[in-house]
């Protein structure tokens, strides 16, 4: 960016009526202070400098936020930064522990929500660690990709990603040569996506005050995972596929014939269960104010009996359905299905709040990919993937903290405006075009 272009854009930014100049004053010194507890977990001086450089690059407006582009942005050789990211053996876990600690202290509320959400990264080759043909939500089909399992935290204060795990398919865990080439540690064994979630929950639950565990229908599909959370005394609201079967406990069982066992209520798909309900069974809920006015959803709940993975009766659950209608013609445009171990008298507003939190983490992942280069890595190794993801989560957390700080000055400030301010300052300091 030329000096004249920089000054022109700076003037435009300062003239926007919703932004006060105080928001950007001493932004870079704040970033330096922000990084202190994270880089303090690194052992060597050059690692500290590389971490700072990489996070600044992730916060820039580079189109591709990989090690090579970031190194060139700051006038550095690419090899040292690439080595730091993909080869160097520094431990990324202490940095994420610091991240969890900060998020728990700054965003923590007793009624917070922990959310688990898998996210795919499409890949064209077969050498990147964990890559395989598997479901890719971004493409909407089974394709070649890596899958990360992300843990997020939502409260009324904000929402943020706190940790992640790389899902390693069975074909990887059983291939010794492939593992060695990608640097997969010997102690890593096959774990399902749900087992990875339980691992993160065990590690961080105490630092993240919460009332709910939520997740998408991939998380809620297996009965054993819901049952495990129930045994752990964790209250969940997990989305489930429309073909999930339950017994409706709010209808009478079939009449007894007088002989043999008493008949049980039949199993029924949750989407078909909805068709047995009346319109007056639904309750309208004002979830939040949207850009086009109040967002009104309709919800219904039923006491049901869950079905185990072995097609037997499980524990009692609450089936919750939430549907969204078009604002103009009141046409139903989407219906989401959930199962919960909450008590049957739990208010529908509480279920709706937890369901909304699950969608917030989808926003978090898109924010990290779009604003902090979460998917821009070009590393193939186990260490490289975890190093990049960790630094991207830290960069995204800085954007969140700056947005919260900026709203004290200007309530209408956006994440986009914060990042524009960061990018302008970085361009001005390094004289980049």
The structural class is alpha+beta
The span between the termini is: 4 Å
Choose one word for the global shape: globular
Topology as a string of helices (H) and strands (E): HHHHHHEEEEHHHEHHEEEHEEEEHHH
Low-confidence stretches: none
Approximately how much helix is present in the residues? 40-55%
Number of strands: 12
The largest pleated sheet is described as: 12 strands, mixed
Chain oligomer state: single chain
Number of DSSP helical runs: 15
Can you describe what's shown?
The protein has 433 residues and is of the alpha+beta class. 42% of the residues lie in helices and 22% in strands. The chain contains 15 helices and twelve strands. It has helices at 3-15, 27-39, 45-58, 67-73, 78-86, 93-107, 170-173, 176-182, 193-204, 217-220, 223-231, 270-275, 348-371, 382-409, 415-430, and strands at residues 113-122, 132-136, 141-154, 159-166, 212-215, 236-239, 245-248, 267-269, 283-290, 293-307, 313-325, 332-340. Strands 1, 2, 3, 4, 5, 6, 7, 8, 9, 10, 11 and 12 form a twelve-stranded mixed β-sheet that branches. Helix 1 runs antiparallel to helix 15, helix 2 packs across helix 3 (45-58) and helix 4 (67-73) packs antiparallel against helix 5 (78-86). The longest helix is centred in the C-terminal third of the chain and has 28 residues, at 382-409. The radius of gyration is 24 Å and the shape is globular.
